[in-house]
Structure formats: structure tokens, C-alpha cells
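#struct-pred

JT: dropping the chains for the assembly here, can someone run the whole complex?
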Amino acid sequence: MIPLGSHPVWHPVFESLGYAAGYAVFRRIRARRGDIIGEPQRWTVIAAAAVGALAGSRLLGLAEQWPTVIAAMRAGHMMSLLFSPGGKTIVGGLLGGWLGVELAKRITGIRSRTGDLFVLPLCVGIAVGRIGCFLAGLADDTYGKATSLPWAVDFGDHVPRHPVQLYEILVLALLAWIATRPAALPEGARFRIFMAGYLAWRLAIDFLKPQPLIGGMNLIQWACVAGLCALGIERLRSPEPSREVARA
Amino acid sequence: MSWKDASVTSKVLIVFTVVFFVSLGLCGISMATKFENLPSAVLGLLGMIVSVIGIVITLIVALIHRVVTGRGGRPQTLFKNRDDKE
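RK: done, full complex below.
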């Protein structure tokens, strides 16, 4: 067992580093590969993604803590809970950001698939942020269940736990490698591969996290199921890209 | 990628989103260090409230502006009849 303890002060530091690293990678990739939409449209997409991610991560983060939310509502402390520092989740951020971008594209008339450029920045940003989650330990709701494996980590409560945050960093590295391989894929396919891969991963790994369950799964897992269904429906409704690749 | 090319709406929304996350971070640091009454917690809370209100107002104004002016090839639904008469 590796003794680590909980150091929550590092969480916001690595979260900020994650945003900065993600943006730096995005700028670099965009400069190198170019973009299928103009700069004003790209900024619109970024703004929509940012606002959608904010709303999604916060709403799902609060919903995930539903026992605390219900207690706060009964006690009349709902406003203080809404503005509390905890209660953000990456799955909510991804789904909210995706929804925000699709809405903004519909309103502004952008028809191109715009997500591919975000794949590597998201992988890098989330991975850096997860280092903060790992260091925060028990103060962050992302720690794993108890295990007897030799690489188990003690976050300060003398319980050997799965370092699920580190597992996620490895999976993100794998997803980044898969989604950025030089292959003839239709526009938007890399983003959908990333989303499907990450949501499937979270659906699986969250069984190793001690969270309140509804119907055998926590709310993040149900959100992953909804996101995977949305990806499947979208794939069925727009099969044209695969035909374009076949012709190419 | 130049910041100058972003529309006013995009700029305002991005700034408010950054303010929200920075404020959240300030609150987080304050809570994590058990100094809930430090100015950072108050500043963070204030930043979060202002940014949420700012985002909501910006979105409403942008939507109204888009409907009224019909930018992006959308029909000018609000004043369509009045325009037709003119």
C-alpha cells in the first residue's frame, strides 16, 4: 500500500493547469492542422462549449450528490449548495459542452463537424486535472473502493484503495493515441470515438467508486448511458460520413 | 488564433466562464485550507454569482439580437410582418 494522504489544495491548481494545457494543445494543433471553420465560428464553438461544460458539469455534479442536495433543500440551504466549490463532474462537462456546441451550431447555421480539434486537448486537460483529483484524495469524490492489490493507495484513512484517477490517466493516453492516429476518418469521427470511449470507460470504472446508487448505478453512469445512446442515435441518423470515406 | 476575431457574445461568454471557474477555484482553495471566512471565499462566491448572472443575461441578449436582426440567415421572426408592410 502506498501512503499518500489527502492534499485538496492541489486540486484547483491542477484543474487550472489542465485548462491551460488543454488550450495550449488546442492552439498548437489548430495551427498545425488548420481548421474547417473560420476563426469567428471557432470562437463561437469554444464559447458554447465552455458555457455548456460549465452548466453540465455543475448540474450533474450536484445531481450526483443527491442525498446532500435533498438535505440542503429541506434545510433551505439550496443557494449555498449551488455555489459551493465541490460538485463538478467531467462527464457532465463533456455532455453539456457537446450539447452547447450543437445548439450554438444550429442557431448560428454552422453545419460542419467541429469536435475533432478538441480530442487531444480534452485528453491532455482531463489527464492533468486528474493528477489534482489523485492528490486531493478523500476530499475529492473521485477516489476508488478498497482493494488488496499491491498498488493500492492510502489517502489518509488507512484503507487501501484503487487509484482510479491514475487508471483514468492511462486510459486517456490510450484514447488520445487511438483518436489521433493517421487514418482516413470522416469529419467528427475522432470526437465521437473519444466520447464513446470515455463514456464507456466511466460507465465501467465508476463501479469501483463508492457513490450513492440509483437502480444499481450512480448518476454519472446513467449520464454515460444516456450519452452513449445519444451517440448511437446520432450515428444511425447520419450514416453519410461512412459512405464518404468509402468513396474516398 | 486571434482573440480579436471572436464576436462580442463569444468574448463575454468566455470571460464569464473563466471568471466562474477561477471563482470556484478560489472557494475551493479557501475550503480546502479550512479558512472559509477568508476574502478569497467571499470573492469566489461573488465571482460565481456575477458570472452566472452575466452568462444568463448575455445569452438572452444574444438570442434576442439574433431574432431581431436575423443574422446568420435566420428569418426576422419578430418584425417580419412589420417589415413586409414597409
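JT: nice. Residues 2-39+110-247 of chain A form one domain. Chain A has one domain: 2-39+110-247.
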